Model the fold of this input.
Amino acid sequence: MFCPTLNKRPAWKVLEKHRKTLEKTRMRDLFAADSQRFDRFSLSAGGLFLDYSKNRITDNTMPLLYDLAKVCGVEEWRNRMFAGEKINISEDRPVLHTALRRPAGDSVTVDSENIMPFIHGTLSKMEKFSRDVRSGTWKGHTGKKITDIVNIGIGGSDLGPRMVCRALRNEAISEPAVHFVSNVDGTDIQQTLRGLSPETTLFIVASKTFTTQETMANAQTARQWLLSSLKEDKAVARHFTALSVNADAAVSFGIPADNLFPFRDWVGGRYSLWSAIGLSICLEHGFDAFRDLLRGAYEMDTHFRAAPLNRNMPVILALLGIWYRNFWKAQCYAVLPYAQNLSLFPAWLQQVDMESNGKSASRNGNTIFYETGPAIFGTAGTDCQHSFFQLIHQGTDIIPCDFIGVKEPMSPHTGQHKMLLANMAAQGQALMEGRDEKSSVGNPHRSFSGNRPSNTLIMERLDARHLGMLLALYEHKIFVQGIIWSINSFDQWGVELGKILTSDILNGKGALDSSTRGILQRFDIT
Ligand code: F6P
Done:
């Protein structure tokens, strides 16, 4: 099942050779020679459509990539993940964010327990609580209706729910208003609380571990802010909830067990928006929207499990990513949602992708000698065109792009929607075709080499169901890449050292190099 020497495998070697044959091939010639190219290199899954024809691929390329996926055991590992096997080897845990999206009648066993009743029990609690808060049945300590929710969390306990809340905002009912605080920089919470009333504010402390320094500091500040006004400790029970695996720590903080929405350690932080961590989504958009989000993700799960490799959207995206990262040495990958409501999608994806696949040790602990996860970046279009697109069009590196467009307008300004989508389509064409010097009147500054790859994903509309599909699509893409690269996509040891050194600095412990000492002295932190 392991493929520890991936770059020595015959399937890899064949791809290396194949790439050499494509060195001089131009995509615009491939399009000119083949009127069916778009039809052959595109597919639909549910309400998502993927055009991958603007890639440096011929009819021979994809079968070779599917062979690579097969010899690396993508299908077997996929089945092991869904079955709840402990594929997160370094933490000895199953990887079961997909179970959070499954219907109640299913059965998924972890350590002899069917976890589906636990999952649906938590969902029922989230449903009741969000309905009570939104209807005003849940009252603050002084008997007033909650008007503002503040989600305190960071990383996966922030980026996922923050992005979904923003993405669905057109459907939102304005009350309660949901705010997010993540940074340990005190200005984040200070500016968020400005203008809010302690009597009508509810805090969600979202932390899988309930030990994360930033979140704990912000939660303490929030509690002081609340109690300095409401005076009585028992006010905490009406104004604080916790979303965590660590019930004891939440209770020690003073949050009653009744206000705890639990999940389990088989949900990775960056995959946790589907768990209790999604409570802020239920509070802003209603539980029905959250249920639709789960349903959309479940549809993508079903597609990922059932579709053959050559019709499997996450597999195709993953293999194209590997094609550029490993065979064309692309170091970066741009994700470009042409939808203002998806403006936080790149930030969410950055954590999911880079924390999952930014690894250089293989699953069995060997150092890896091939490239793994690329640097992911992106901004919503059309803003991206006026910031970093110059480099994508004329820079010296290949930066593969994913364009994401939404068919149904998200505002009444339908003329602007047409402009938005025309911009997106034009960028893909410009990247692919380029413009040679002749038509740029012999001016190299004005010439475009073209042959720059992109995928275009089209969503029917930006509602909870389609969003759920989109997010699960990228989760599974990342999974497939991790399997092929033979890494564990589900641990994150790389974030630990900085945490330890921060705590050493704050406790005046540990040896400091002269640069770090000098910096701290300049800050008067010694
Ligand atoms: O950044 C490291 C990390 O562990 C992420 O994986 C996680 O999403 C984030 O910190 C927050 O962790 P927690 O939910 O435990 O506060």
Observations:
- The chain is about 45% helix and 10% strand.
- The two ends are 51 Å apart (CA to CA).
